[in-house]
Amino acid sequence: MERKWIYLGIAGILVVIVIIGIGMSMVNSFDESSNNATVSVTQGDTITISLGENPKTGFRWVANVTPGLAISRDTYESGNPIGEMMGMLGAGGTRTWHITAVQTGTQTFSAVKVRSDTPYPVNIYSITFQVSNR
Question: DSSP labels for 69-117?
């Protein structure tokens, strides 16, 4: 009889874990290697895109999204924070966007890397998301 209650307890815990997991959104991470990719995500999922950037030398990413994606955060993390504090050029780091898939359908994140003194992009990044309902 005791084993029966132990198994029922374990089964109950597993059911709760599955129910909680269904309600949680996924976090999908992408970088330069996913340029020009098409990826399936679910509405409500969080997407992070991280691209190398060197703002001290004037190179910055400028991002755009279609209306079904919402950028909630745009951050830069230095690859050499001490060097940057000392005024060193060329250390570079990573620009990261945190995005939520808010609308179903085909959605696109695109970014161009530009230098402040030239109108021409030095790099172009694009990724397409097929956003489905939960």
Answer: EEEEEEEEEES-HHHHHTT-SS--EEEEEEEEE-SSEEEEEEEEEEETT
Q: What is d(CA 108, CA 69) in angstroms, rounded to the nearest whole number?
A: 8
How many distinct structural domains can be found in the chain?
Answer: 1
Residue 96 is which amino acid? T
- Nearest-CA neighbor of 92 among 102, 83, 101? 83
Average pLDDT, stretch 65-73?
A: 97
Three-state secondary structure call for residue 117: coil
Cβ-based burial of 107 (10 A; exposed 0-12, middle 13-18, buried ≥19):
buried
Which CATH number do you get for residue 81? 2.60.40.2020
Q: Is the pTM of this model over 0.85?
A: no
